[in-house]
Amino acid sequence: MFASKINFFSTKFNEVNVRNGPGLNHLLLYKILVKGYPLKEISDFDNWKKIEDFSGRVGWISKSQLSREEYVITILPDQYLYKFPANNSKKIATVKKESLLKIIRETEGWLLLESDGVKGWITKNAVWGLN
After folding, report:
1. Are residues 77 and 96 in contact, defined by beta-carbon separation less than 8 angstroms?
2. Cβ(27)–Cβ(76) under 8 Å?
3. Could you give the CA distance from residue 125 to residue 41 in angstroms, rounded to a whole number?
4. Is residue 65 helix, strand or coil?
């Protein structure tokens, strides 16, 4: 029996290469062109992690390109950031699907997130990338 804890990482830089195998000699599949993009760890080998993104794309990234900073990506269309962790709270901002937000704090069923200086609460089921 293995305890299956899911690990999420985020991209450390504004340009990160995703390859089809663990090593610089492997084919470049695509580039992630944003810092803080959340990725789920599938496995690791030497200094490489096999990752999956929210859309199901899989590839390998050098560990030096990954960060433990916690970010999430919204997976539901037109969500709101709320002033407090409650649906009847004041709406601060509208969040489009596939928006990238930094996790500030977690509470039961809710996340305090930040993007471009705006902070607000969103329900956990509206995002992808949580440990």
Report:
1. yes
2. no
3. 20
4. helix
The reported pTM is 0.90
Spatial separation of the C-alpha atoms in residues 103 and 83, rounded to whole Å: 15
Q: Kindly tell me the burial class for residue 18, based on how many C-beta atoms sit within 10 Å of its own C-beta (0-12, 13-18, 19 or more).
A: buried
Sort strands 16-19 and 100-107 into parallel, antiparallel or unpaired.
Answer: unpaired
Confidence check: pLDDT of 1 > 70? no
**Burial of 15 (C-beta count, 10 Å sphere; 0-12/13-18/19+):** exposed
DSSP 125: G
Residues 6+ apart with CB under 8 A from 29: 18, 19, 20, 57, 59
